């Protein structure tokens, strides 16, 4: 009888497929520390750039570097606009990102629109749509120019979709445009407060000016991409500045029409994770359909002696978030068929 050695047990590292980085709400400004709007949480405007540098050094030194990094929006703080420092601050952050040895995908949040118009952002370095994947013979999966969204493939059979959560919004849009009027009407119908950033007394507290929503056009496009991914047996990660699942977030921070986005996602089998920023506090919940909703803790409210970023390691049966500093570790198993 031939002697056969026992097969080596598969260690986690040998079955790891790839990894990617996540970081949210850097909100850099060349300002002394301040506080959030409620005055109860400290914001470290200058130090956020050092946190970003630390994250980039970490990713660059990983033995197998991440395929890409997802920057979840609010890259510089709205205060920059008051001090006419928007372009200068963006330049500093983008120069820091240039040290990163892998591609970064930029999501747009409310603070991008406090500083810049949508037209400006479209022509800026924050537009990473050039990294998109195009699916041959499927024109329905090509996003419109009317919103900032695209999809890409960091590894075979894994598709990442970047959504525009301010597609419907009063931020960054010309106030004389029909779109602005339409969005203001939606906002006012749900929010009678004089101060449209206040959720006071609202039945649906997400209808505030610092949030936004997804147009029907964008949701239809998302549906087409997910239909393709279902057929192609791909696993999908969705990225948005705004969260869409109440159990994983403060309800004041949700996308206006989060239910519509969930309805599209829940009508497909392929989505495994939804990454968002915006809340600064972080949050996590697995929904009834097995989609993991992960809100990444914001860099802006992270003390100098801590950190706030993560690396997600992808395996055939799960994703593992390895958090740094305020970002906790999480294991996200794919749902069983």
TrEMBL record:
Cofactor(s) needed by this chain: Mg(2+)
Record's protein name: Manganese-dependent ADP-ribose/CDP-alcohol diphosphatase
Alphabetized UniProt keyword annotations: Acetylation, Hydrolase, Metal-binding, Zinc
Cited function: Hydrolyzes ADP-ribose, IDP-ribose, CDP-glycerol, CDP-choline and CDP-ethanolamine, but not other non-reducing ADP-sugars or CDP-glucose. May be involved in immune cell signaling as suggested by the second-messenger role of ADP-ribose, which activates TRPM2 as a mediator of oxidative/nitrosative stress.
Keyword Hydrolase appears in the UniProt entry: yes
PANTHER family, alphabetized: MANGANESE-DEPENDENT ADP-RIBOSE_CDP-ALCOHOL DIPHOSPHATASE, PTHR16509
Reaction it catalyzes: ADP-D-ribose + H2O = D-ribose 5-phosphate + AMP + 2 H(+); CDP-glycerol + H2O = sn-glycerol 3-phosphate + CMP + 2 H(+); CDP-choline + H2O = phosphocholine + CMP + 2 H(+)
């Amino acid at each position: 009888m031939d002697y056969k050695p026992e097969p080596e047990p598969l260690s986690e590292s040998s079955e790891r497929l790839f990894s990617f980085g996540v970081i949210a709400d850097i909100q850099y400004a060349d300002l002394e520390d301040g506080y959030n709007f409620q005055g109860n949480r400290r914001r470290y405007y200058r130090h956020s750039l050092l946190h970003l540098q630390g994250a980039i050094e970490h990713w660059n030194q990983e033995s197998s570097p991440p395929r890409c990094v997802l920057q979840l929006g609010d890259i510089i703080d709205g205060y920059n606009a008051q001090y006419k420092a928007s372009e200068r601050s963006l330049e500093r952050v983008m120069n820091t990102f240039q040290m990163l040895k892998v591609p970064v995908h930029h999501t747009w949040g409310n603070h991008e629109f406090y500083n810049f118009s949508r037209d400006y952002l479209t022509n800026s370095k924050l537009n990473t749509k050039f990294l998109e994947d195009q699916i041959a013979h499927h024109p329905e999966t090509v996003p419109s120019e009317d919103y900032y969204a695209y999809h890409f493939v960091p590894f075979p059979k894994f598709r990442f979709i970047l959504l525009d959560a301010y597609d419907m919004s009063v931020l960054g849009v010309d106030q004389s445009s029909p779109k602005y009027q339409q969005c203001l009407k939606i906002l006012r119908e749900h929010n009678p407060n004089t101060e449209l950033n206040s959720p006071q007394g609202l039945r649906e507290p997400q209808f505030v000016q610092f949030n936004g929503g997804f147009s029907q056009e964008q949701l239809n496009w998302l549906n087409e991409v997910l239909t393709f991914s279902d057929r192609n047996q791909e696993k999908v990660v969705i990225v948005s500045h705004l969260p869409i699942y109440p159990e994983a977030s403060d309800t004041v921070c949700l996308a206006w029409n989060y239910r519509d986005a969930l309805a599209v996602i829940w009508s497909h089998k392929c989505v495994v994770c939804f990454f968002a920023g915006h809340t600064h506090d972080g949050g996590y919940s697995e929904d009834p359909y097995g989609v993991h909703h992960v809100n990444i803790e914001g860099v802006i409210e992270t003390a100098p002696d801590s950190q706030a970023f993560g690396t997600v390691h992808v395996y055939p049966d799960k994703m593992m978030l390895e958090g740094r500093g305020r970002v906790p570790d999480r294991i996200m198993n794919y749902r069983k068929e």
